[in-house]
Amino acid sequence: SQTIHQWPATLVQPVGSPLSLECTVEGTSNPNLYWYRQAAGRGLQLLFYSVGIGQISSEVPQNLSASRPQDRQFILSSKKLLLSDSGFYLCAWSVFQYGYTFGSGTRLTVV
Amino acid sequence: GQQLNQSPQSMFIQEGEDVSMNCTSSSIFNTWLWYKQDPGEGPVLLIALYKAGELTSNGRLTAQFGITRKDSFLNISASIPSDVGIYFCAGEGSQGNLIFGKGTKLSVKP
Predict the structure, then answer these.
(1) What's the confidence (pLDDT) of residue B61?
(2) Measured on CA atoms in the order A24, A54, A95, A108, is the torsion positive or negative?
(3) How close, in Å, is residue B17 to chain A by CA atoms?
(4) Cβ within 8 Å, pair B41-A42
């Protein structure tokens, strides 16, 4: 069966520090992968999606970047975090765009 | 771009009550999905709708894909405390990505 792993679950980072969040998927090949951000009390904002290795589409220009070094690995990064980067980050995968499956999320607090 | 308007934004429920929420859009969607998110967790798929007019149930949950393909509703019958959370509608956009509504937060009446 397919599973999605996202870590860490929580993270507190100082302003200006780098960020690396990792997401891996098991049990499927060539999935579409997504990074979403959810600010407190708000909906889901699509940040990046990838349809294959090395293929990244950015939905919102910002302080973040994404990479897909392997078929089932998706990484969200930042060189220098801002206070406004705080939020709940969710990784998701899908095949044929139906029924996204989400990871359990990473709560990032930038202090 | 394509957007979904989800309402209500929040609501309070009393155990045993029926609950209804909906999503509308000015754009046509080919697929409608409903998710539930518990605090500190990722959203979990509840119901997927693939055809206009389709009515689908999952236990106490019922969702319908509007005939015009521009709206969908979710009903929860005989609510229980564990129904609290945030419910999201989502539609498959023209580029194959999912577009989410802003969510309906369900809380228990004090």
Answers:
(1) 97
(2) positive
(3) 24
(4) no
